[in-house]
Amino acid sequence: MERVAHESLVLLTPAADPQNAHAFFLNKLSHETDPSDVYADMKNGVADFVLIDVRSPKAYAQSHAVGAINLPHPRINDATMADYAKDKLIVVYCWGPGCNGATKAAVKLSALGFRVKEMIGGIEYWEDRERYPVERGTNGTF
Question: Candidates 3.40.309.10, 3.40.250.10, 2.160.10.10, 3.40.1280.10; correct CATH number of 33-135?
Answer without folding.
Answer: 3.40.250.10
